[in-house]
C-alpha cells in the first residue's frame, strides 16, 4: 500500500480507495502533493510550479528565486524560515531562536502500526495496515521530526501523528506541536464544523473558507461542548450524497485547536492538534514528545459516505475490549427521575418497574456517596451515603442483581468538592495557582490528575468500590472545565505542560482501570456531551450524548454527532414531559423514536407512568431488543437535515441489506402542507422489501421513495417504518 519512488522522491500511499502523495522537494523539503480518490500511479507531473513570488524568501541552499517555502504545499510547515503562513510547530531553542528547518533524512515503511505510548490510538491486524515513518531533521538545532502515516486496507482514511525528538544537549521548549497539517491547492472549499454549548452540543455550521485564518478550538481542558475536535473540508457542491470531502478527527479529549488558513494564493491549510494556547513542553536531551493521532477520512460521495468511513473505522479500529461490536444494554438512569432526592425504597421501586418493562441495566446516578444531598459536596469521597442506601452500596447492588438486572454506577473521579473529606485532607490536590483562590464551577475543583499521588489515591478508592460491589457499568462524568491550570509539583517553566500532563495522567488511569475491569461497560460523560471525542472512545465505547433529553433538541444534536461518531456510541434516553431542559411537551412515541436512534435508555420516574404509557414503553423496549443490532451497528444514513427545516429523517440498513429502519420526524404542523417524499438509500436494488407500504422493490424505494404518512397530525410527530427483504 505504500511505495517510494527514489528517482522522483515521491511517496504514494494507496489502498484502492484513496491516494496520499508527498514529495521530497528541493533541499529536502517535504511537500504535499495530493490527497483524494485513488490514483493508479503517480507520474510525478504535479510538481509545484516555479514562480518568483516577491516577498517570499528562498531557502539559503536554493539555486534560484523561484522556490519558496512561503508558497509550497508543505507536509508539516514551520514558521520563521520563510513560510509566513500558519505553522504546525513552534520550537524555542536554547539560544532563544524560533527558527527550525526540517529536511528529509530517511524513511521506513512498516507492516502494521506502531503503538503510541500513553495516548488513544486506532488499531488493527498488522497484515492489513502499513505505516510510513518519515524522519526529518534540523542539523543545526539537532532536533528530529518523525511523521507517521498509517493506511488500513479497508478504510478510506489516513491516520497521522507526529513526534519530536531532541538530540541537542540543551533543552528545547515546544510552544506548539500539531498532529498534522494538510495543504490543499487553490480550489473553493467549505468548512463544516461541530460547535455548541451545554445541552446544545454538536450543532453543524457550514461556511466558505475565505482568505485569512480561522481558529476552532477548546481551551477548556476538555474536548468540550463548545467545539468538537472534528471538522470537514468539502467542495462547495458537496451534499450528503455527492461530492468530495475530507474529515479531520482528533483522538484527544483535552484542549485542542484546528487552524484553517486560506493563503494569498488561495491555497488552504488545515492544522490540527493539541491547543497551543498556554502550552509549552520542556524537552530534554534524548526525550520524545508524541502528538495525538488524527484520522483524516476521504469521501467522493458526500458526507454520508464520509460518516460511514468514520463509523466503520471507529467501531472496528478504535473501540476495543469486551463491548466492541457487542450489543449494549437498555438502561434506566435515576437522574431525571429523582435527582438527589432518593432513598433505597425509591430506588427499589424504580428497579422493580424497570424490570417489568424489560429494562436490563439500572444506573444509580449522582448523589449516592459521601454527604451528597445536592451538587455542593462530597466529590472525592467515594463511599456510600448510608442514610440513602440502608443496605450499603453492595447490598443494594445485589438486590438489583437478584432481580436479574445489571447494576451501574455514576462517578466523577477527576473532581473534588470544597466540602469533602478529601479537600479537608488535601486542599493542595486541586489545580490552583499559588496565592490565588481558584475558580469554582458547580461548587467543585478539578483534581490535579497530572500528579501520580492524586491518581493513586482516587484509584485506590475506585478499586475498593469495584472489588466489593458487583458493578457492570460505570458512567464517568466531568462537570466542569479546567481553570487555574497549574500544578504545585512542577517548576514554573513547566506550567505550560500541566493541561497535557493531566490528559496523559487521565489516559494512564483509564487504561489501567478499563483493562483491569474488562467486564465493566464504561460510558463517558461531561455534563452530557462535553467530552464526546474519538480519544475518549478508545477507553469508553459509549458516551452520554447530551444532558438535553428533549426529543426535538436531540434531532440536531444526534444528527450533528452522527457526522463522525457511530450510533453505537451515542447514549440516548426517553425522559419525562414537560422536558426538564426545554419544558417542551412531546409524545412518548417521538421520544422513543429519537432515543432508539442511539443506545436506548430511560431517564424518568417509572413509578409515575400510567398503564397506557407502560404499554407503549414495553412495546418500545421489545421492538428495540428485536432490532438492536441494526440500530446500534447498522449503516446509518442521514436523509433530511434538521438544520435545513422542519423535517428530519434518517435510516439504518443492516450490513447484509436484508433489513432497514427508517425514521421521519416533523417539528411543526402546517396546514395544506406539501407531501414529503423520502428516497431511501443503501438497499439492494434488485430485492423486494416488505413494510407497511406493501412489497416494494429496493430500486423503487431508492429511486421513487415513499410518501410520509400525510395524516400525521400536530406538532412533534414521527413515523418509523421497518423494511424486511423477502427472499
Ligand atoms: C451531568 C450528567 O450529564 C447528568 O446525566 C448527570 O449525571 C449529572 N451530571 C449528575 O450530576
Automatic annotation (TrEMBL):
<feature type="domain" description="Glycosyl hydrolase family 36 N-terminal">
    <location>
        <begin position="28"/>
        <end position="284"/>
    </location>
</feature>
<comment type="similarity">
    <text>Belongs to the glycosyl hydrolase.</text>
</comment>
<dbReference type="InterPro" id="IPR050985">
    <property type="entry name" value="Alpha-glycosidase_related"/>
</dbReference>
<dbReference type="InterPro" id="IPR031704">
    <property type="entry name" value="Glyco_hydro_36_N"/>
</dbReference>
<dbReference type="Pfam" id="PF16875">
    <property type="entry name" value="Glyco_hydro_36N"/>
</dbReference>
<dbReference type="GO" id="GO:0004557">
    <property type="term" value="F:alpha-galactosidase activity"/>
</dbReference>
<feature type="binding site">
    <location>
        <begin position="475"/>
        <end position="479"/>
    </location>
    <ligand>
        <name>substrate</name>
    </ligand>
</feature>
<dbReference type="Pfam" id="PF16874">
    <property type="entry name" value="Glyco_hydro_36C"/>
</dbReference>
<dbReference type="InterPro" id="IPR002252">
    <property type="entry name" value="Glyco_hydro_36"/>
</dbReference>
<feature type="binding site">
    <location>
        <begin position="365"/>
        <end position="366"/>
    </location>
    <ligand>
        <name>substrate</name>
    </ligand>
</feature>
<feature type="domain" description="Glycosyl hydrolase family 36 C-terminal">
    <location>
        <begin position="648"/>
        <end position="723"/>
    </location>
</feature>
<dbReference type="Pfam" id="PF02065">
    <property type="entry name" value="Melibiase"/>
</dbReference>
<dbReference type="InterPro" id="IPR038417">
    <property type="entry name" value="Alpga-gal_N_sf"/>
</dbReference>
<dbReference type="InterPro" id="IPR031705">
    <property type="entry name" value="Glyco_hydro_36_C"/>
</dbReference>
<feature type="binding site">
    <location>
        <position position="525"/>
    </location>
    <ligand>
        <name>substrate</name>
    </ligand>
</feature>
<dbReference type="InterPro" id="IPR013780">
    <property type="entry name" value="Glyco_hydro_b"/>
</dbReference>
<protein>
    <recommendedName>
        <fullName>Alpha-galactosidase</fullName>
        <ecNumber>3.2.1.22</ecNumber>
    </recommendedName>
</protein>
<feature type="active site" description="Proton donor">
    <location>
        <position position="547"/>
    </location>
</feature>
<feature type="binding site">
    <location>
        <position position="442"/>
    </location>
    <ligand>
        <name>substrate</name>
    </ligand>
</feature>
<dbReference type="InterPro" id="IPR017853">
    <property type="entry name" value="GH"/>
</dbReference>
<feature type="active site" description="Nucleophile">
    <location>
        <position position="477"/>
    </location>
</feature>
<feature type="binding site">
    <location>
        <position position="547"/>
    </location>
    <ligand>
        <name>substrate</name>
    </ligand>
</feature>
<dbReference type="InterPro" id="IPR013785">
    <property type="entry name" value="Aldolase_TIM"/>
</dbReference>
<dbReference type="GO" id="GO:0016052">
    <property type="term" value="P:carbohydrate catabolic process"/>
</dbReference>
<keyword id="KW-0378">Hydrolase</keyword>
<keyword id="KW-0326">Glycosidase</keyword>
<feature type="binding site">
    <location>
        <position position="198"/>
    </location>
    <ligand>
        <name>substrate</name>
    </ligand>
</feature>
Amino acid at each position: 500500500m505504500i511505495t517510494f519512488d527514489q528517482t522522483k522522491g515521491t511517496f504514494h500511499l494507496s489502498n484502492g480507495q484513496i491516494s496520499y502523495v508527498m514529495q521530497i522537494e528541493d533541499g529536502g523539503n517535504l511537500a504535499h502533493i495530493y490527497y483524494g480518490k485513488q490514483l493508479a500511479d503517480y507520474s510525478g507531473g504535479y510538481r509545484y510550479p516555479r514562480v518568483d513570488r516577491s516577498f517570499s524568501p528562498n531557502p539559503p541552499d536554493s539555486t534560484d528565486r523561484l522556490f519558496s517555502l512561503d508558497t509550497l504545499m508543505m507536509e508539516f510547515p514551520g514558521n520563521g524560515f520563510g513560510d509566513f503562513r500558519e505553522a504546525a510547530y513552534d520550537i524555542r531553542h536554547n539560544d532563544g531562536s524560533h527558527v527550525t528547518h526540517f529536511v528529509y533524512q530517511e524513511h521506513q515503511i512498516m507492516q502494521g502500526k506502531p503503538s503510541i505510548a500513553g495516548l488513544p490510538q486506532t488499531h488493527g491486524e498488522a497484515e492489513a495496515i502499513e505505516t510510513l515513518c518519515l524522519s526529518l531533521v534540523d542539523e543545526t538545532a539537532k532536533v528530529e521530526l518523525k511523521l507517521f502515516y498509517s493506511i488500513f486496507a479497508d478504510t478510506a482514511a489516513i491516520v497521522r501523528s507526529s513526534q519530536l525528538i531532541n538530540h541537542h544537549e540543551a533543552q528545547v521548549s515546544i510552544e506548539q506541536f500539531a498532529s498534522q497539517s494538510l495543504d490543499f491547492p487553490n480550489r473553493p472549499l467549505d468548512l463544516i464544523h461541530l460547535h455548541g454549548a451545554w445541552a446544545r452540543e454538536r450543532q453543524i455550521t457550514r461556511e466558505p473558507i475565505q482568505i485569512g485564518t480561522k481558529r476552532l478550538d477548546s481551551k477548556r481542558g476538555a474536548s468540550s461542548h463548545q467545539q468538537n475536535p472534528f471538522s470537514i473540508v468539502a467542495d462547495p457542491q458537496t451534499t450528503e450524497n455527492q461530492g468530495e470531502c475530507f474529515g479531520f478527527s482528533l483522538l484527544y479529549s483535552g484542549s485542542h485547536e484546528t487552524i484553517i488558513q486560506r493563503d494569498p494564493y488561495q491555497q488552504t491549510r488545515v492544522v490540527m492538534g493539541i491547543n497551543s494556547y498556554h502550552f509549552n513542553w520542556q524537552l530534554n536531551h534524548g526525550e520524545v514528545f508524541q502528538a495525538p493521532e488524527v484520522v483524516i477520512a476521504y469521501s467522493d460521495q458526500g458526507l454520508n459516505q464520509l460518516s460511514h468511513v468514520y463509523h466503520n473505522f471507529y467501531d472496528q479500529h478504535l473501540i476495543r475490549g469486551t463491548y466492541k461490536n457487542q450489543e449494549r444494554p437498555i438502561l434506566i438512569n435515576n437522574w431525571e427521575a429523582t435527582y438527589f432526592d432518593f432513598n433505597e425504597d425509591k430506588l427499589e421501586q424504580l428497579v422493580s418497574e424497570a424490570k417489568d418493562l424489560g429494562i436490563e441495566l439500572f444506573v444509580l446516578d449522582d448523589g449516592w456517596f459521601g454527604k451528597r444531598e445536592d451538587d455542593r459536596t462530597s466529590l472525592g469521597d467515594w463511599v456510600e451515603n448510608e442514610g440513602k442506601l440502608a443496605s450499603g452500596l453492595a447490598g443494594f447492588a445485589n438486590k438489583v442483581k437478584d432481580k436479574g438486572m445489571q447494576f451501574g454506577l455514576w462517578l466523577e473521579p477527576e473532581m473534588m468538592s470544597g466540602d469533602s473529606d478529601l479537600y479537608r485532607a488535601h486542599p493542595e490536590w486541586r489545580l490552583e495557582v499559588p496565592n490565588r483562590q481558584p475558580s469554582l464551577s458547580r461548587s467543585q475543583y478539578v483534581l490535579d490528575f497530572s500528579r501520580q499521588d492524586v491518581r493513586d489515591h482516587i484509584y485506590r478508592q475506585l478499586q475498593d468500590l469495584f472489588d466489593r460491589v458487583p458493578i457492570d457499568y460505570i458512567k464517568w462524568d466531568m462537570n466542569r472545565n479546567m481553570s487555574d491550570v497549574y500544578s504545585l509539583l512542577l517548576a514554573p517553566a513547566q506550567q505550560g505542560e500541566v493541561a497535557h500532563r493531566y490528559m496523559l495522567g487521565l489516559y494512564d488511569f483509564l487504561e489501567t482501570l478499563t483493562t483491569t475491569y474488562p467486564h465493566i461497560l464504561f460510558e463517558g460523560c461531561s455534563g452530557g456531551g462535553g467530552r464526546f471525542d474519538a480519544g475518549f472512545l478508545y477507553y469508553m465505547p459509549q458516551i452520554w450524548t447530551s444532558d438535553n433529553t428533549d426529543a426535538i433538541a436531540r434531532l440536531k444534536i444526534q444528527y450533528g454527532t452522527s457526522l463522525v461518531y457511530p450510533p453505537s456510541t451515542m447514549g440516548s434516553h426517553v425522559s419525562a414531559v414537560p422536558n426538564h431542559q426545554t419544558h417542551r411537551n412531546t409524545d412518548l412515541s417521538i421520544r422513543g423514536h429519537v432515543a432508539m436512534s442511539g443506545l436506548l435508555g430511560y431517564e424518568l420516574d417509572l413509578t409515575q407512568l400510567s398503564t397506557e404509557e407502560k404499554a407503549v414503553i414495553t412495546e418500545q423496549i421489545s421492538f428495540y431488543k428485536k432490532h438492536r443490532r441494526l440500530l446500534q451497528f447498522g449503516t446509518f444514513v442521514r436523509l433530511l437535515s434538521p438544520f435545513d427545516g422542519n423535517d428530519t429523517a434518517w435510516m439504518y440498513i443492516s450490513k447484509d441489506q436484508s433489513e432497514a429502519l427508517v425514521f421521519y420526524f416533523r417539528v411543526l404542523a402546517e396546514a395544506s402542507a406539501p407531501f414529503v417524499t423520502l428516497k431511501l438509500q443503501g438497499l439492494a436494488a434488485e430485492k423486494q422489501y416488505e413494510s407497511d407500504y406493501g412489497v416494494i422493490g429496493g430500486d423503487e424505494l431508492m429511486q421513487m421513495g415513499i410518501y410520509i404518512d400525510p395524516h400525521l397530525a400536530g406538532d412533534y410527530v414521527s413515523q418509523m417504518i421497518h423494511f424486511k427483504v423477502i427472499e
